[in-house]
Amino acid sequence: MNNSPIGVFDSGLGGLTVVKEIKKVLPDEKIIYLGDTARVPYGTRSSSTVIKFSLENTKFLVTKKVKCIVIACNTSSAWATDAIKNTTDIPILNVIDPAVDSAIEGNIRKIGIIATAGTVRSGVYQKKLKAKNSNIDVYAKACPLFVPLIEEGETKGKIIELVAKKYLSELKSKDIDALILGCTHYPIIDKVIGDEMGRNVRLINPAVGLAQELSKILDKSDLYAEKRFDDDEYYLTDDPTGFINVAEAYLEEDIDNLITKISLT
Ligand code: DGL
After folding, report:
1. What's the CATH number for 97-206?
2. Which Gene3D superfamilies does this UniProt record tie to the protein (predicted)?
3. Which numeric CATH code is attached to 6-94+208-261?
4. How far, in Å, CA of 55 to CA of 49, rounded?
5. pTM of the predicted structure, to 2 decimals
6. What is the pLDDT of residues 176-189, one digit of tens each?
């Protein structure tokens, strides 16, 4: 048993899609969430900057005495997992490995990935998928407009549908079997993406596999919390105004009294 919290970080609010899945599987675990809202987006930045920011996020969570850290951000997972693992002995989980495992399940021939430009450029999803099954074809597409639109609350309606049509047409023409939603924000618009791709394409939300993986690791290392003693805590590096609306709508929970603004530098 270990009643310390689980640390989760993301570049901004997208990591709440990961928090939501963790809370479904592990409702008794306290979560400390860090959203680096002052420096979002990470997806357009260089690898060295993403690594620097991710290490600062990790350092903050370690000061909060977390028992493990979930790298909710796909871009950080792609560039910074190894660097983070070198700084601490606590378990570090990223969202890419469980997504790859879910994607290759079944009789799969062609897999699509949509993600930030940084995640696509890293080639990490592509390499890991090919390493698990060299016979599959992998197609990756960066969708840079999705994040700002979702952050603006454009999660349904004509604008997001038009953007989805533009980004997904190439993947549609490849006749893929599964599509990895390789950015924390994309599960928020999974309906728009699903409608555009059609029902034969299996959508993979990396957070679902991550939550299962986290549960297994807590079990194996005897790190489960006995019961929930305390509320979750949310730390943001910028003012929470925009965050609160999207967060409360998505989590269906009142969290404004759980948010603290901090500075990492
Ligand atoms: N959290 C980022 C990711 O999952 C998306 C937003 C950003 O570009 O920072 O890749």
Report:
1. 3.40.50.1860
2. 3.40.50.1860
3. 3.40.50.1860
4. 10
5. 0.96
6. 999 999 999 999 99
Measured in Å, residue 66 CA sits from the centre of ligand 1 at 22
Q: How many angstroms separate the alpha carbon of residue 12 from the centre of ligand 1?
A: 7
Q: Distance from the CA of 4 to the center of ligand 1, in angstroms?
A: 27
Would you say the CATH fold of 97-206 matches that of 6-94+208-261?
A: yes
- Radius of gyration of the chain from its Cα atoms, rounded to whole angstroms: 18
Q: Which atom of ligand 1 sits closest to the CA of residue 115?
A: 10
Cβ–ligand 1 contact at 14 (below 6 Å): yes
Rounded average pLDDT over 139-149? 96
| Structure tokens belonging to residue 208 | 């679902």
Does ligand 1 have an atom closer than 6 angstroms to the CB of 202? no
Handedness of CA 240, 243, 245, 251 (dihedral sign): negative
Share of the chain above pLDDT 90, in %: 90
Joined together, the tokens standing for residue 225 give 């919390």
d(CA 111, CA 121): 17
**Cβ of 37 less than 6 Å from ligand 1:** no
pLDDT for 107: 86
Our answer on whether the CB atom of 183 is closer than 6 Å to any ligand 1 atom is: yes
